[in-house]
Amino acid sequence: MAKTADLDVAYVAKLARINLTEAETQLFQKQLGSVLEYVEKLRGVDVSQVEASAHAVPMFDVFREDEPRDWFTAKEALSNAPRQANNLFIVTKVIE
Amino acid sequence: MSRRDLPAFNIADLQVLLRRREISPREVLETLQTRIEDIDGKIDAYLSRDFETALKEAEKVDVDLPLGGVPIAIKDIISVAGQPCTCASKILANYRAMYDATVIQKLRAAGAIPFGKTNMDEFAMGSSTENSGMKLTRNPWDVSRVPGGSSGGSAAAVAADEAFGALGTETGGSIRQPAAVSGVVGVKPTYGRISRFGVVAFASSLDQVGPVTKTVLDAALIMNAIAGHDPSESTSLNEPVPDYTAALGKDLRGVRLGLAKEYMIDGTDPQVKAAVDAAVKHLQSLGAEIVEVSLPHTEYAISVYYILATAEASANLARFDGVRYGHRAENPKDLLDHYGRTREEGFGAEVKRRIILGTYVLSSGYYDAYYLRAQKVRELIRQDFAKAFEKIDALVSPTSPVPAFKLGERTADPLQMYLADIFTSPANLAGICGISLPCGFAEIDGARLPIGLQLLGKALDEARIFQIAHAYEQSTDWHKARPSLTEIPQAA
After folding, report:
1. Which of A20, A47, A55 sits opposite B205 (nearest CB)?
2. pLDDT at B492 over 60
């Protein structure tokens, strides 16, 4: 398992698209450092013969009938939009 | 009966009055509304209420339906059409649900009336409700203490007789732990037993909806209404739903109860230990047989839980990007600034911490060491329970190692807060069912604080843990105790 010192909170926050203040970065670095130190104990478990389980109850290929049904109207879908116009979401400019 | 006594009623007793037409659903709602207005200033269990809509529903409801005319409080992570669904987060402060979650549709079909949304830790991340981005909820037994969490608003509302029953959600103990420290009944159903369609996702391989009630019978009544398959939810189990009230009243002769040595930990409060030991003796006197079992991977559960839950949360909460709904930062200079500031302003500290931890354990170079390894240890924890359940019908333990702690006592150290889930999170990892019910009180600093007894059952064996819990409850008086705060003021 990786050394806990490897956690660079400032870098991971960028990956997660969350701006942090300097004070938050330092606090989280310390707090998450302790959490990662605590989870180090998993290193002591022999998992060589174990299959990973993503779910406690394995369920695969769950389908329902491919039939049309009523869903949201554009007006409903836009009802919580931070910005909208002409039945469309207004988004921050993506392409230069 | 006086209207003043009504809020203290449990659901089953309320239904007797409703079905005899001694009280109307409108009168029930009005009495509850008065009660909340009188008392919620001290507790702050609710984030929003809509009695206007609820009263309209009360006019046409059929009281002979399974929950006909019964008001149910709803944790603010479950969508109720037209109502706020904030998850106690600033990022959803102005969000209104566009549709009813499947559990709400099912409650309505059973005649129940959702009327208000309860406080919680933001996005269900926490064990004290102190991570709410909206307000603090107080424990009705001692208002200087937390009600537990994350479903702390639901537990406090039921404990303070501000709700006859409520829905909560669990990821690592968020129904059972607040129920325990608030002195009420809380159920974590089997993973997949109840649809999560319309419930805001935290950690999708762990999340489950469940009831918070005053009695085991009430929990069974709500389970009857909300359990079952939902074609809109791919993880919901397509298994028949039994009548959960059917096994209540059966005696405990031949029932095998397990005690796990790994659950006897040093951090357990001596008064909690004494109460649970006494409860075990009591269950024995009712005919249950005690069997020692071993769950050797218990000590890894918290580690596995906080890796898997944060990993899944980091993916689930990526949807809060300020584009289609929720808060958006003003005048972003570009797209990265839009995302970065929207999420900085919208999320509270614990949510940020968990997204960062979850992003880290999934990131390139660390995935195998953390996430994949945690998934494998999860499988070992699941196998521990599978082996134990070959010998026992249910496992007995404390729900929480400690009674309600003081507001602010654990907020500085997230790891200490995480350890509150030590007896509850293994059930979420294993996908099995569990219940917490009152089994005594701890006297701490002059306060009388409830203690919870936990029973864990096999997947889909809710009926069995209800049977055991009901037998215990009905032969003890713990569930009848009410916090002194709930004495209705003379003016009412």
Report:
1. A55
2. no
Q: What is the CATH number of the domain that holds B279?
A: 3.90.1300.10
Inter-CA distances, B203 with A36, A40, A83, B273, B321, Å: 19, 22, 29, 31, 18
Mutation target vs A (from B208, B300, B376; most A CBs, 10 A cutoff): B376
Q: Which of B48, B128, B132, B150 is the catalytic position?
A: B150
| Domain segments of chain A as ranges | 4-44
Number of independent structural domains in chain B: 1
Q: Does A88 touch chain B (CB under 8 A)?
A: no
Is the preceding peptide bond at B150 cis, omega within 30 degrees of 0?
yes
pLDDT at B490 over 80: no
Q: What is the pLDDT of residues A31-68, one digit of tens each?
A: 999 999 999 999 999 999 998 877 777 777 888 888 89
Q: Is the dihedral of CA A25, B366, B346, B84 positive or negative?
A: negative
Is B75 one of the annotated active-site residues of the chain? Answer: yes
What's residue B452's pLDDT? 98
B373 closest CB neighbour out of A18, A36, A42: A42
DSSP class of residue B47 equals E
Neighbours of A74 (CB within 10 A): 10
Q: How far apart are CA B419 and CA B459, in angstroms?
A: 24
Q: Which domain holds residue B161?
A: 3-295+382-486
| pLDDT tens per residue, range B455-479 | 999 999 999 999 999 999 999 999 9
A69 at interface of B, judged by CB pairs closer than 8 A: no
ipTM value for the complex: 0.94
**Residue B99 domain-assigned (yes or no):** yes
Q: Which CATH class is domain A4-44?
A: mainly alpha
